[in-house]
Amino acid sequence: MLGYGPTATADGAPFLTNAADGLLVRQAVLRVGGGCVDTHNNATDFQLAAPAPRNSASPLTPCSTAPVLRANGILNSASYLFGAIAPGELLAVFGTKLGPEAGAAGQLTADKTRFTTELAGVRVLFDGVAAPVLYASAGQVNVIAPFEIAGKSQTLVRVEVNGVSTAAQTMAVASAAPGIFTALGTGCGPAAALNQDGTVNSVNEMSPLGGIVVLYATGAGQTQPAGEDGKLSIGDPATPLGSVSVTIGGKDAQILYAGNAPGLVQGVLQVNARIPAGLLGRQPVVLTVAGVKSQAEVNIAVDTAASAPADLLSVDISASDIAYDPGTHRLYASVGADAPANKNSIAVIDPSTGATLDWIPSAPNPKLLTISDDGHYLYTLLKPLSGVNHDSIQRIDLRTGKTDFILSLDDVYPGLIPDLSSASVTDLQSLPGQPRSVAIAAKISGGILPVAILDDTVRRPGLGAPASTLSTVAPGVLWSDTRGLYITSNGVLAGGLYPRNVDTTAYCVQAAGGRLISATGLVMSGVGDDLLAELDLGFAISQRSFAYRADTGLAYYAGLAYGAASIVIAAFDLNTFAPQGMFLQFDDSVPRERRFFGIAQRLVPVGPAGLATISGQGPGVGRVFIFPLSLIQPLPASRVPAAQPSTGLRRFQIPTRSMAADSTGGRLYFSIPSAVPPIGNSVISFDVAAGSFGAPVFVGSEPSLLAVSTDDQYLHVALDGSRTVARLTLPGLTEDRVFLIRRSDGVLADVAGILSLPGEPRSVIIGRKMRYLQHTYGFAVYDDGIPRPEITTVYGDIRSVEIPLVNEAQVSADGTTLYGEQGEVLGAQLSRWRITPTGLEFDAKGTRFDWQIYLDLKCQRNRCLTGSGQLADTDSLQIVYRLATHANDGLAAMDLDNNRMFLLINGVTEITVESYDASTYSLTGTYTIPHAGSAHSFAKVSGDQLVIATRGEIILLPLSMLKPPV
User: Fold this and answer.
1) What is the SS3 string spanning 331-385?
2) pLDDT tens digit string along 372-399?
3) 78-92, 696-710, 867-881: range with lowest mean pLDDT
4) Phi and psi of 607, rounded to 5°?
5) For the whole model, what pTM was predicted?
6) Are the C-beta atoms of 681 and 658 separated by less than 8 Å?
7) Across residues 484-497, what is the average pLDDT?
8) Which residue(s) pair with 811 in the sheet?
9) How far apart are CA 801 and CA 816, in angstroms?
10) Which of 599, 628, 629 is nearest to 614 (CA)?
11) What gap in Å lies between CA 699 and CA 658, rounded to an integer?
């Protein structure tokens, strides 16, 4: 909410970092009607005006409780236009106190044949005749004009709420007042139409050439036989008395049917029309009933016969930005003042061939582009060439190629900021269903400006939260680099759409099949309220562009590649969050003129199977590249290895992240990362004796650490991609619960360790790690996903006990004690913690282990062994013996029931395993496994075997193969 005076705030936070530099907001946001208007629409309930402070001495202004109709507030439900109404027309009635605050949906009569004329105490009367009510709320009531008004020239309309009536409004009556329902419910843009195969007509699902399109409308007037108020259309349909015609693309369309929409309420007209020959792409559609035309700027999409390029195309222009219109299959590229050729123009490109079809003149130095969803308007950002001229917004009418207007940033924010000399536009976004409107994000040297909405050349009065980037994620909703933004008729309202479990800014976000994806690889649900995954983008040095294709259901990311490759594009499945394919272009693999240089500036879907981007950065930026999806090669499919029941050394080629064993050591569980299609992001079980795997079970994004409850009832899985832990029931691996992992200050944390709590199968001890760093924020006990209040340590917290970090940990067999390593610069120290009903309580710390501060730790009975061979006593917390002087990246395993201990040493190309006598500490056996990667998990399991898991394979080593040292 904007304040006034020196506060200069937006939504409670300064939108400039230095608001004291003379910035004054000279208008306040005030409640309409002294606070008595409450329609649950802030665009209606608030207005900008001169400040009018009130205090306890101000006179009271009691609010009326009577319902009020808004002037000119009775609109066609399809077109949202005000005008004469027709019999049977569906209407949206706006006002205040018109119904229940929560809203109520229409109800059918007892025989289920028609809608009732009273809903939640609300009636709407036309000359005293109660109309069927489809919806009722405080700010809006949807009704159907009674057929009884047919033949009249006018009618008196009033709303009655619990017996209290509004003043009557006089409305003209016409024989017809047609309005076509639109897909976005705004009255313009794509029609709410069906193709002949039942799919929803859109630029992604176009109607075939000569095909049939089904339109829905209201306001067709009286029918034959006569309409019945609120009755459902069942049986023989009625047809309008007035003649019905349709034009598509300005051509007369053949009408195959025009009558009541079967199954819907009478008053909804269905028209089946054949698309005239010779039409391609997005085409305007007009319905005429009894000589009255429907609203303008409604369209349908006709198949453009577009094709994908046969190979990689490089368009020899120097472009700053690109935008694609699927309704015409045209790619637009801005060519600035510093381009070597065709300066200050918009190139029109056929993405099938890469041919430049036209050059649209532009004002000097066009940069950013965005196209209205009806394809009529191209909005461009004009950057000043020199001096103190400010950025400007230009709109080009693509039907004529002429500039509609150029509006300076001074005109967008008039009087709001005294000095706009440093102001610049950072992003533009056209609004769905509002082709004449564009959202603007801008900044000045002191900070980020609030988002503004332009309707033609008029800025809506309400200014939203500050933002640098903008993206449309749903009708009426934008996503910025800071939060969600609601678009209203009055301007922009800040929304509370921060992802609940994301602790970093999502930056650029796009809608992706009911989800959101970000430039950083985040996949979020709905409008960003939940993090589902973080895609593995480790294939590139940096990611600069991304796109989503509805037809493939895949997200595409382009970035600079490692090594000699100049660009990499990867495709991801948004259901499994796993990569599906990849394209690499190597510098020496293509001629120089087809070589990709610099950063992929923007990635956009083009045509039926293509992607386009710009290569380069800096003045003039670079060439336009068009990639057919066929260049993206599927990743090699991984399979579950076949069983190996032999008793010798067994090696299974399957990548894993972590391992856990059941209480007997006879069944193991492994987490499979996303980069193992098609079995990635899963958990798989393994029978040690049989050497066989179960079926992979999908669990979520990037499963890693695992822990089996001591009663073998549950498996807890850390999901790194969503910063959660999933609990699965065994043996079926069925999801039972998912819970977030946060630091004590509420910021999300990754899982650094996960340990089952003996005797409490629904509880685990979890180490919480800061993303991208090794140290933890302490271990906490979670019961059914709820943390106990006391944790080991919290970094920087006053409860920290001398050493703030806990790295590796083990739980005693009786479940009363946690043993951990506390990291120090000089090495790790062994510490002991008591496990209590309230959490973890510090007990004591002891010996300092040699070498680095992160050591694998395994404890059994009264001994703890590190991967570097240091053995400590859990009572004294002192080192009692050093089995070896190996490097720090080793792993440990304990088998004190059989008086054995084991060390694993990761070599450059091999793994060495050593066994030791637990009483004499003598080396009893050794075995070297050649051609093995670095191990991440190591344990003694049933059948006298050791199991080793690396990033690429699982190895089972019988103890009988360890040979005594020579």
Assistant:
1) EEEEECCCCCCCCCEEEEEECCCCEEEEEEECCCCEEEEEECCCCCEEEEEECCC
2) 988 999 999 999 876 556 899 999 999 9
3) 867-881
4) 60, -165
5) 0.84
6) no
7) 79
8) 818
9) 19
10) 599
11) 14
